[in-house]
Amino acid sequence: MASETWLIAGLGNPGARYQRTRHNIGHMVLDELLSRLGATYSRTKVGAKAVGAQLPGGPKLVFAVSEGYMNESGKPVRGLMDYFGVDPARLVVVHDELDIDYGRLKLRRGGSEGGHNGLKSITQHLGGNKDYIRVRAGIGRPPGQINAAQYVLQPFSKDEEKDLPEFVSRTADAVESVLTEGLAAAQNTFH
After folding, report:
1. What is the mean pLDDT of the segment spanning 148-173?
2. What is the pLDDT of residues 126-156, one digit of tens each?
3. Does residue 104 sit within a domain?
4. Is 1 a member of any domain?
5. Residues spanned by the domain of 40
6. Active-site positions?
7. CB 37 within 8 A of CB 62
8. What percent of the chain has pLDDT over 90?
9. What is the SS3 assignment for 138?
10. Residue 14: is it exposed, middle or buried by C-beta count within 10 angstroms (0-12/13-18/19+)?
11. In a 10 Å sphere around its CB, with 0-12 CB exposed, 13-18 middle and 19+ buried, how is residue 20 labelled?
12. How many Cα atoms sit within 13 Å of 170 on the Cβ side?
């Protein structure tokens, strides 16, 4: 029987080289959420760093980031879901989104992975189940002839960096809203 616990997974790549890149906005948002809660990660046996927490008056939560690369996100996410008895409907994935302008958010349950290798890996490890919530943080399309795979691994531009703290904070607010008010209310507020 599934528990009432929620798993919030922030997607990104490990190491200092990728820390401030577009692909790592999921990690940045989870760092912000943990900072608000005064919590820190511990290593797990499934290849992720995770911490249990609770929002005031809210459900039990597990925040996690993979210790592997983006395209390997599914295995540790699935391992944590199995360990904590989390149903896919209670999985929230925070990730970068090329098809949304920088600084904008979209929240949805299910849908296509849109070429995002982290989402593809999660869906694969969930046996094709796409019934999880995605908090899609817009990074915009690459300018000119820059390859999308290269673009997501680049640091934010100087102009983007100016707005990044507010964008990360607002995205963290959206995650909290999903958890405390529900997806529909969060969509009304953050879309």
Report:
1. 96
2. 999 999 999 999 999 998 888 999 999 999 9
3. yes
4. no
5. 6-190
6. 23
7. no
8. 88
9. strand
10. middle
11. middle
12. 18
